[in-house]
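Write out this protein's structure.
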Amino acid sequence: MPIVPPAKLAELQKNAQRIRNVCVLAHVDHGKTTLSDALLATNGIISSKLAGKVRYLDSREDEQERGITMETSGISLYYRMPAGAAPEDEYLVNLIDSPGHVDFASEVASAARLSDGALVLVDVVEGVCTQTVSVLRQAWVENVRPVLFLNKMDRLVAEWRMTPGEAYLHLQQLIEQVNAVLAGFWEGDRLAEDSRRFEASKTRWREAHGGDAPATEWYLEEKDDSHIYFSPEQGNVLFGSAIDGWAFRTSHFARIFADKLGLASPAKLQPLMWGDHFIDPKDRSRVLNRRQLAKLHGPTKAAAAAPLFVQLCLRPVWQVYESVVVEPNQDRVDKVIDALAIKILPRDRRSKDKRTLLAAIMQGWLPLAQACMAAIVDQLPSPVDAQPRRLPPLVHGAAHQADAAPQSEAERALYGCAADRSAPVVAYIGKVVSVPRASLPEFSAAPGQGGRAAMTADEMRARGRDAVRRELALSRGSAAGTPLSALSLSGTASAAASGTATPAEQPDALAGAVAGGLHIGDADPDPDAGESEILVGFGRIYSGSVSVGDKLWAMQPKYSPGDARTHGFLKQITVRSLYLMMGREFVRLQSVPAGSVFGIRGVAGAILKSGTLASDAQTCPNLAAMHTETHPIVRVALEPANPQDMPRLVRGLELLNQADPCAQVVSQATGERVLVTAGELHLERCLKDLRERFALCEIHVSEPIVPFREGIVRQPAQHGVALGEVGSSGRQLAIISRQPAAADAETAAAAARRGEVTLTTANGLVAVTVRVEPLPEQTTEFLARHVADIQRVVRAASSQRRQRANAAAEALGEDVAATLAAQTEAEDGAAKPSRLSELGPWLQDRLRQTFVRAKGWEPQRVEHIMDGGLRVFGPRRVGPNMLIYSKEVLEQAGASASCWFRQREHSALGSSFTASPCLSEDDDDDDDDDDESEDDGAEALPAAPESAARPAGTIREFEESVGAGFQLAAQSGPLCLEPLVGVAVTIERFVYNGADAAEAERPAPARDAAALSGQIITTVRDAIKAGFLQWSPRMHLAMYRCGIQATSEVLGRVYAVINRRHGRILSEEMREGTPYFMIEAAVPIIESFGFADEIRKRTSGAAIPLLIFRGFEPLDVDPFWVPTTKEELEDLGEKADRENAAKNYMDKVRRRKGLFVERKIVEHAEKQRTLKK
C-alpha cells in the first residue's frame, strides 16, 4: 500500500465511528513491536520484509540495543476493509505500542488510559507470565476491551515438533489460563460490588428504623460473564506468528470451507470451529459433536477423530512448515504454492534461507496485518461506543456503575463523544514526552517534517520577511531598553497576536511567532521558548474540539472543581501546536476532534506527568488519576561532576520529572537531589536521559539507596546500648556497643520489665515511662495491608476536627478564627466517600481479632486498647506501629479523641483546640509541598485562655508533644534511622513534677510551655528508642519477587546465582507441555543490582529474570549477635569471623547517613604482632 498522506488521516478523525484507539500489551519479548512493524508495513511506512527487524516504534538508541521497548509510542494507521467484507469502509487505527518490562508499567497505564481496546499478546510456548497478568489487570481496571493474540505458533512446529492435535490441546489450556485470570478479576469486582450493596442496605435500614439491621441470608446475584472471556468462536482470539507475518481467526477458515461443507453461510460454521466438533467421516457435509460421533461410529473412532480446528486450521499450516522448514522438499513447496494460489517471486523460491520463503508463503496466504486489522475493527469499540462504558468510573470513581446516565451537560458530551465546537472540551494527557526541538515540524528544516524544505516558495519568502521584521524589532527594543516580551509583533505575527488576521493567515502567523521564540503578549508567554528539549503532551480528547490558539485549563489529579482549596493545582494554558503522532515524527494539525489521540504543545509547567485539560474548570470533571501496578523504590543521590553545572542538573531533573511518568525527584532539606525509579533498568534509562538530553553534563551517582525497616522479636537481646546524655541533650543515639547479655537476665521479673524505660526531661519537670514491645505478626500484616483504609478514616476525622474548630472559633472572635483557618487551610480535604462511617468500626473489629488470635496479649488489655487505649498509628499516622495509653494515663487524658475518633464532650474550652496526636501529623504518605505546609499549620495551635496556660500535671495538655515524639521515633529507628515496623509503644506513666505556688509565679524560660513541649518530644522519642534496643532487633529488607523461566539445563546455574544474592526459592513448577521450569524466588533489593546481567551471563541468555516489588521481610539475624555459648565459641571463635549480613546492611546505611559505625582501625601497621603480647 502506498504511503497514506497525513491529510487523509486528519480527515478520518472527523468521524469518531470510524476510529479505533488500540494499545498493544504483552509480557516482555512476546512480540509487541514485531506485530506493530507488520501493521506499519500496511501503510507503506516500512517494508514488509523489514517487519520485526527495524523496530520502527523503538525510537531510542538503548531500545534498539537492548531489543526491548522502554517508552510508549503511538502512530495513526489507515485501514480499508477488503472488497466484499461487511462493513466495507475506511478506518483510522490509532496504535499505541507499550513496554512489557515491569520497570515501565507506568507506560502501560498511560497506553491503556488513552485506548478503547487492546491487543494482548501471549507467547504460546512461555504461556501466561507475570507481566501478562499485570497488563490484563491494567486493561480490566481501565475498562479496555481486549483481543487475544496467541503469538509464536511457529515454535510449536519448528522447535517443539508438536502434532496438530497436541498443539490444539496446548492452545486450549493456554486460553483457559488466560480466562482464569479474567475470571479472578470478575469475581473480585462482583464481591466488592455485593459488599457495597450490602453496606448500603444496612445504612438505609439504620436511617429508616434506627439500630442495626436484622440478620439476613447472604447471597450473590447471578450475572452472565460470558462476554468477558476469550473464545475463538466469538472471534476475539487470533492465532499466528508475528515474526513470520501471518495470523488468522477461525472466521477466515469458516469462509473458505463453508461452501465445501455445504453450509449456507460461514456464520453457521463459525461457532463450530472451536471445541469438540467433528466432520462425519461418511457424510462430510455434516458436523457432529463427540457424543453423536461416538453413537454413529463407535467410541474408538470418536476418540481418534480430529476436531474441526485441527483438520481445517492447523493441519494446512503444519503442512506448509513441514514442507519448507522441518523437512524441506521443493516439489512439495511448489504444490503448496499452487494449491494456495499465491504469487511468490522467483528469487524467493530460490532463496537458500528457508525462513524467507516461508514468510513469503504465509504472508501471501494469511497476512498478519489483514487479520489483526479486521479483528480490531470487528471486535473493538469506537470512541462513541466505548466512552459511555469507560468514562463513568473515571468521572465519579471506580465504584460507580458503568453505562450510567449522565448527570450534567458536560457528562452528556463526554459519554456521547460530542465533537462539535460548542461542546465542552475535555481531554486527558496520559504522559508528557520530551522531544528534541529539531524533531518538531515548526522548528525543523528537514524534508518531510513540515519545515523549510516542505514549504512552498511563497511560504518561505513570507517567513523570511517575518524574520527580518523580528530582527528589526529586536534591535529597536535593545536600543530603547524595552523587554523582549513587550515588543509588538509586526506583519502577520502581530496580526495573529491582535486577532486581526484572517482565519487562513492566523495559524501560519501564530506558528511563525512561536517558531521565532517570541512571547505573544506579557500575559501569555511561550513556555518552550529557548528550550532545546520541548515537552509535548500525549493525550486523548473525549469531547469537544480543540484548535491551535485555544485557551484551556490544565487540571492536575488533586484538583477538585468544587473545592477552592485545590485551585493551586489549576493553571490556564494556550495550545501552541497540535500533532498527529506518527511514531518518531510529528505531523502538525490545526484542530483535533473528540475521539482522537493527539499530541499537544503548551502544557510545560502546567501538567506534571498526567492530567486533564478542559475548557471550563468549574463544570468539566477532572478525570481520575491512572492506576499503576508498580511504584518507584530505588533511590540514588545525584550531583554534577562540576559544581558550576548544578543549575543544569536541577533543570534536567525538572524535565525528567515531567517527562517520565514513574520517576520521582526529591529535594532533601540538605540540598541533596534524589532520583527515585522503579528498578535498575529504569534507573539506567533516566541517567542516560539526564546526561545526554536534559542536563547535558557529567553526573556523579551514589550507590542505590534502598529502604529498610526496623523491627523487634521476642528473643534474648544480644546487645547493650551506650545512651550517652540522651535524656538531657536530646541528641540522636550515637554509639551502639555490643555487650553479652547476663546469664540471669531473662528472669520472670526482668522479662516483665523488658522494653520499659523511664526518662526525664532536661529541666526535670516531666518524667515519662515508656514500654516498647513487638506487635503480633498478624496485627502488623493487617495494618500494612489496610494503610489506605486507615488513611481514609484519618482524613475524615481531620475534616470533622476542622468543622468543630471553626464552630468554636466563632465564639472566640475573628483573630482566633483566622488562626484556625491558616491551620487547616492546607488539609487534603478529600471528599468523604460513601459508607465511610462504617469503615472505622470495621477496621476496629478486624484489628481486635488479630490481637485475640495472638499469644501473649491478655483479653482485658486487648479490650482496653480497642476501647480508647489506642491513640494513633505511626509513622505518618498510617504505619504498622501503635501508640497506646495505659489505664492510668488514659484517665489523665480524659475525653480527647481516640484513634477511632469517637467524639466526646470537652469539659474545658482549651481542650477544644487539643486534638489527638493522630490529628497533628501528615495526611498523606506523599512528600508534597502541601503536606509539609499542613504539618506546619497543625503545630501552630492557638493560645489557650490564661487559666489553661500553665501545665496542670497531666498528659492531656501535652498529647500533641507525646504524639509527635512517637511519630519521630517511628519514622527513624535506633539502628540506622529507618522506619519502625510492628512495634507497640505504651505510655505507662506520665508524671509532672510540679513546683510550689511561689516558684510557679516566678517567670522562668525553662517553664515556658513551648520549651517544655519540645523537651517532651525529645524525651519520648529517645525513651522509645532505648526501649526498642532492649529487645532483639531485626532489619527488614525490601524484597523483589523474581520470576524466572528456564530449561532444566540451566536450572542449577540459576539456583547458584539466587543463593549468592541471598535469595530463596518460593516455588518451582514445570509448565505442562513445555520443557520450561517456572521459578519464583525472593531476592533482597539491596542484592539485586546486576542480578539480571549475572543471570543472563551464567545461562548464556537462556534465562531472563523479571523483578517485582514484593514488600518487606525480616532478616532473622540479630545485627548485634556475637558467639556466647560454648558451642558457638568452639565453632566460630571469639571474633565470630562469620559474616553477619544484618550488621553489614545496618553499617552500610549508617555510613551513608553519616552515623557512628563501629570498625577496627589498624593503628600501627608496621609493628610486628606477637601472640605473647
